[in-house]
Amino acid sequence: MTHADLLGRVPALDGRYDIYGNIHKGLRRTECLLLSRLGANDFADAAATDKLLADIRRLLALAAAHVRHEDGEIHAALNGRGIATDLVDAQHDDHRAAFAALESGIVAVETAPAAHRAEAGRALYLAFAAYIADDFAHMHEEETVTAPLLWRHFTDEELLAIEMRIIASLPPEENMAFTRIMLPAMNPDQRAALVGGMLQAMPREVFAAVVEFAIRPSLTEADFQALRLSVGLAA
Ligand SMILES: [Fe+2]
């Protein structure tokens, strides 16, 4: 990627459906928070380290699922209309290699003798930073190059149907986990649109569980109250 025209590369949304926007915001925010925690972590503190490593594993599992969803639904749809996805396919293969390498780095921290744990933690920090740097470049490619291809070859209704197929394939726990990383990364209008759509689409008890286990815990009380008012949820 050349950097002289970074802003010029970003295509205007022009009212089109932003299939990558919310999930990529969620991944970027979570990756930044985890990198920051890794850098600041005291690897002599076993409880804090265990919690951090578990949180990194959870993010990597979501990232792996996200890559599978894009391969199975977005790239397949483009390929089905004769559009090649070689670069982003190769980037997804690199991600899969990174997931395996990062898992080894996590295990190395877990199994290191106390005297070597900080060193294993430093290696994991640098490896994770390199992975998210690649992921940021990859998501930029998707949102500046792949998205315009989707807009050119698919209607917004078709793009929404692709996203709905992905969401419908998620087990409830994974759906909640994605909601938890996405909502705090999104702006108030995006939150209201997502949660308003859930309110319309879900049975009442399911929606109540999503509010309790995914929506409320992921937001500050002030942000939750603002969302509650804009969507028209009962107090
Ligand atoms: Fe991707």
Offer a concise description of the structure:
By secondary structure, this protein is mainly alpha-helical. The chain folds into 2 domains: 21-158, Four Helix Bundle (Hemerythrin (Met), subunit A) (Up-down Bundle), CATH 1.20.120; 170-235, no CATH class.
Structure characterization notes:
It is built from 9 helices and no strands. The protein has 235 residues and is mainly alpha-helical. Helix 2 runs antiparallel to helix 3 (86-111). The termini are far apart. Bound molecules: fe (ii) ion (FE2).
Bound molecules: fe (ii) ion
- Counted beta strands: 0
Overall tally of structural domains: 2
Mean pLDDT: 95
Q: Please give the count of helices.
A: 9
- Runs in which pLDDT lies below 50 for 5 or more consecutive residues are none
| CATH architect. name of the largest domain | Up-down Bundle
Order of helices and strands: HHHHHHHHH
CATH topology of the largest domain: Four Helix Bundle (Hemerythrin (Met), subunit A)
User: What is the beta-strand fraction?
Assistant: under 5%
Largest sheet: none
- The rounded Rg comes to 19 Å
Helix and strand composition category: mainly alpha
Assembly category: single chain
Overall CATH class of the largest domain: Mainly Alpha
State the distance separating the first and last CA atoms.
Answer: 48 Å
Helix content, binned percent = over 70%
Which word captures the global form?
globular
